[in-house]
């Protein structure tokens, strides 16, 4: 059996023992605090590292799903690479007609709402179409019809008055280039200004409706049967944090845009195409238009957005004033047929903002 010799080391003085104990306790508390900090950081909303050149180049502590760009300190856009030039898209689509580059020629006879037959009879085409629904998904708001009876609708609408329409419309949501994400958090006034800068104007609601539904006034841009996969619709609604959107150019707004966004880049849904070749008219984002009704506010939203809404061609949202802006609101532009318009600048919205000069809108 081995015997250990008794230790010859002298016990530490009381002051040294107390110091070592304090250090050990402090180290343990430090580790606990660090662990708590890591947990809180993981749960916190993202904070940008830089806002240089209008681009978000990083985030802390949790990486955002998308790279966001702040345009003019007001609007948000996801950085992306254009799928093709506007000229190439024009050639592939074959719908430009005699309109400027990147626009679609829209021409034909638009069916008009019937005049009231009696006092209180205010039937509209939207209301008439509801009577031709063969199968309802839901009759509660937002009501959604799975399929409309085309033959019944054509018979019902054949004697409606019509109006000749002829104009040019952006093929995609602003900034109107395939593969590029739309601007969001834009007011009616700001949308009008951005269109005017390109020598265009904001579409009126009749133009938007006709470009969506065509001469038959069909309920969906792609026809009479609702196709949930054709356009970006029916995504689950996410509660929003209103205070995070103020100021709208701040890091909290960017993080909230990233959390809420469920849309897609322009033109990536090939079946979400109207009879004239205009894309993404239902779903994705709401689009500002100008009212054609006398005596009401001019700011009208068309098309619905990515959430579980009606997303037909005729319905509209008429409850917001011109200064209203929200996380799913954007626009597209129109122009009178024959108007002379300069070619809008191609926007480089991909990669490192320092790698290529950005146009004025993104500086």
UniProtKB/TrEMBL annotation:
The chain crosses the membrane at residues 21-42. Keywords: Membrane, Transmembrane, Transmembrane helix. Pfam families: FGE-sulfatase. The keyword Transmembrane applies. One of its GO terms (molecular function) is formylglycine-generating oxidase activity. The keyword Chloroplast does not apply. Residues 156-334 form the Sulfatase-modifying factor enzyme-like domain. This is Secreted protein.
